[in-house]
Specification:
Elements lengths: L9 H4 L2 H9 L6 E4 L1 H8 L7 E4 L3 H10 L3 E6 L4 E6 L2 E7 L1 E5 L6 E4 L3 H6 L9 E3 L4 E2 L4 H7 L8 H7 L2 H13 L6 H9 L9 H11 L5 H10 L3 H5 L5 H13 L6 H9 L3 H10 L4 H11 L10 H11 L1 H13 L8 H7 L1 H4 L9 H5 L7 H16 L6 H17 L4
Parallel strand pairs: 2-5
Antiparallel strand pairs: 1-2, 1-8, 3-4, 4-5, 6-7, 8-9
Length: 417
């Protein structure tokens, strides 16, 4: 049944989205904005991509775009999706369809003109709303009521929806964490638990995408807790789940005025040692940079528990700002009863008040002191750098000369030159 409610959104009246709708809303065809953009607009939160559904076949969408000098990209044309790029904004335009057979991402589809049928093939009621160019909201599955209640609910039988694509288990918790309120819908939750073995059939790339989105949502703690209670996370992460440190990491980010960071939160959730980081990197097919960041966080994070500011300054120099911040926050999140110690916040804010200088001594300083080029030169530079750090980064010439002299003398004394 269609609700008479009207969405007052400026992007429906003018701009690139309105132009795409006008392009497709003529000569017997109809187009509407669907999915997340409608949901977010109704919730009063920023919208991301604007997706459009249409009765026009993909070839007709391409033809009209070409006639209007709009770039079209056949991003999923076998499934009816063409991306139109207008004024630098991409719009996924998908022909109405029915999934006649479903098996993960490889559904067999038939194109049609049935807006009700198209809505019923989607995952959750709040994602199945559509809005026409005049702002009229079309609701065939009770999505408006669920948005008002902040309730994430599967369309129809949850078990059937999940069997069509097991990624919907993760999407259920992510969408609830982002837009829901209170406990997850009971029927949906129980269906996810019953179907959890299906998570093993998903590609690591798809699981990674959903998990990294989930952990940075406002309701991540509640959703992650529900997933853990339902026995869902162990098969995904392949190890121990640390709920306390995960919640503590979110609080540490807040106190440090840092934005949510998915890899940092994943580390708090599942990384205690570097072996955990490498396991996650493999299981979720994380990028090399993501795995390296996890590995760095898992490496002796506990050293920060006893670090004073002088030692923290040295760690900041050694690790660099990003790795220092992430490893320190992991130590803070895992500090147990000591998390409330104000020292943690002071150390987290250290990069704002201290920028480590560059090591001022060079190879030429030691060659002038009789150290030959080669391995010993590298060794003496390391000795001098360690002494410079221990002396708290002096930059005055007398102290630098003394450090260089002492390092060179040690090499000569050991008979290595």
């Amino acid at each position: 049944m269609t609700d008479a409610r009207v969405l007052d959104a400026p992007w429906l009246r003018s701009g690139p989205a309105a132009r795409v709708l006008a392009l497709l809303n003529c000569d017997g065809e109809e187009a509407r904005v669907v999915g997340g953009a409608v949901r977010n607009a109704l919730l009063g939160i920023p919208i991301g991509d604007i997706d459009i559904a249409t009765t026009a076949l993909p070839t007709e969408v391409v033809r009209r775009a070409k006639a209007a000098s709009i770039k079209s990209v056949p991003t999923g044309i076998d499934h009816g999706t063409v991306t139109l790029v207008l004024e630098g904004h991409p719009f996924e335009v998908t022909t109405l369809r029915l999934d006649t057979e479903t098996f993960g991402r490889k559904a067999k589809v038939e194109f049609g003109r049935d807006w009700v049928g198209d809505a019923h093939r989607r995952d959750f009621t709040m994602n199945a709303l559509s809005v026409s160019a005049d702002g009229i909201i079309h609701d065939y599955v009770g999505g408006l009521a669920d948005i008002a209640a902040r309730r994430v609910r599967f369309i129809g039988d949850p078990a059937q929806r999940i069997a069509e694509d097991y990624l919907r288990i993760l999407r259920f918790f992510r969408i609830h964490a982002a837009f829901g309120h209170g406990e997850p819908d009971r029927d949906g939750y129980l269906a996810c638990i019953a179907a959890r073995a299906g998570l093993a059939t998903l590609s690591a790339e798809r699981v990674r995408m959903e998990m990294l989105k989930l952990v940075v949502t406002d309701g991540a703690v509640g959703a992650i807790t529900a997933m853990t209670d339902g026995g869902l996370l162990t098969s995904i992460l392949g190890g121990v789940v640390y709920l306390g440190p995960f919640a503590a990491m979110i609080e540490a980010e807040r106190q440090s005025a840092l934005p949510p960071h998915p890899i940092r939160r994943l580390a708090a959730l599942a990384v205690a040692v570097t072996e955990d980081a490498r396991r996650l990197g493999t299981r979720l097919k994380l990028s090399n940079a993501e795995t390296k960041a996890l590995d760095s966080m898992g490496h002796r994070w506990w050293r920060f528990a006893s670090a004073d500011e002088a030692r923290a300054r040295r760690l900041l120099y050694r690790l660099g700002e990003a790795n220092y911040r992430d490893r320190l926050l992991l130590g803070w999140a895992r500090a147990g009863r000591d998390r409330s110690d104000p020292r943690w916040c002071d150390l987290a804010l250290l990069p704002q008040r201290f920028t480590p200088p560059k090591f001022p001594l060079k190879a030429a300083d030691f060659i002038a002191r009789g150290i030959a080029e080669g391995p010993l030169l590298g060794h003496v530079l390391t000795l001098a750098e360690d002494a410079w750090l221990a002396a708290d980064f002096p930059l005055d010439e007398p102290r630098l000369h003394a450090i260089a002299d002492q390092a060179a003398a040690r090499i000569h004394r050991d008979g290595r030159s």
